[in-house]
Amino acid sequence: MNKIKITRIKDSAVSKVDFNNIPFGKIFTDHMFIVDYIDGEWKSPEIKPLELMPTHPGNLAWHYGQAIFEGMKATISQDNTPLLFRAEKHIERLNASAARMCMAELPEDLFMEAIRKFVSLERAWIPPTPGSALYLRPMMYATDATIGVRASDSYRFIIIALPVGPYYANPVKLRAAEKYVRATIGGVGEAKTAGNYAASLLPAKIAKEEGYDQVMWLDAHEFKYIQEVGTMNIFFVIDGEVITPSLNGAILKGITRDSIIHILRDKGYKVTERPITIHEVFEASENNTLQEVFGSGTAAVIAPVSKIKWKSNILDLDPESFKIAKLAKATINGLRNESIEDKYGWIERLPALEMA
Question: Are 335 and 85 in contact (CB under 8 A)?
């Protein structure tokens, strides 16, 4: 494997950023990591100043959708050390997405070295405010310039980063899907591929026009089994039991989801992964056993749900009364800034970057 070449930017833009007022997804850091897959090998890995990349209009990714990505975060410790949270799970999921989309897989050691060096270089961009982070976007797309439905022979992998504040400032309101579907078993629902998100835009737009923040997706056959939310996995607390839809190939394998399951079980809660219907949730609300609903994701962390609409039925909740969601969020955030002991081995501290 080639050594990662590092070219620093001459003048950083970090001093222009107000870390107390960060619009989500609009401010990018100084650098990018890039490596190309050519002739069966990943070649010329490099960290360099962020720049535009000219692309041939016949690029296979534009026409046939071979594009995948990850979302992960770097945070800062109380002694100003950059921290990674379960980074190895992200390369595992990236490569699972690549396999499903018939793309080249990235070596884990290259990914980890790139993430470590990239975050160490961009450490000044990590917001110190609690709940904020440096959002990392690893991504891969086809680069063959060929019109024809086939897998590309060449690919480009990139990492970019953005300082971000909380994704949701307030509890979220969900609109259960009635017409559109996100994924079906046997499809690409558990792959983090661009097309999944493109297909969600119209239903999300319709939900927002009705006053809701996100779509809560139901299964593609009976429209009754809950899958996930547009930007998150989802949890329900019914009569003290924490329930989340079981992974079935149509649901994204959320890393925050997995972390919450571990944390809550460790704290003595009963956490069950199983199919759950929209009917069950509304029935639990009617008999006063539905105690909490919250989403989980890298961007959102934990997002309490205040309202769900399904057909003509509306369910209201009081997020102020939620205990388990608050515990999960406080634990995740505490692990990410080392104010809580990491007994799970999920946090990696990054040393200062050594320049050749």
Answer: yes
Q: Which two tokens stand for residue 323?
A: 């205990």
Pairing label, strands 226-229, 155-164: unpaired
Nearest CA to 231 out of 186, 271, 260, 196 is that of 196
pLDDT digits (tens, 9 = 90+) for 195-253: 999 999 999 999 999 999 999 999 999 999 999 998 899 999 999 999 999 999 999 99
Percent of the chain whose predicted confidence (pLDDT) is above 90: 92
Report d(CA 92, CA 90) in Å as an integer: 5
Amino acid in position 112: M
Q: How far apart are CA 199 and CA 195, in angstroms?
A: 6
For the chain, residues with pLDDT lower than 70 are 1-2, 355-356
The pLDDT value given to residue 355:
61
Q: What are phi and psi of 182, to 5 degrees?
A: -90, -45
> 134 and 74 in contact (C-beta within 8 Å)?
yes
Give exposure, 266-291, as e/b (b: 16+ Cβ within 10 Å): eeebebeeeebbbebbbebbeeeebb
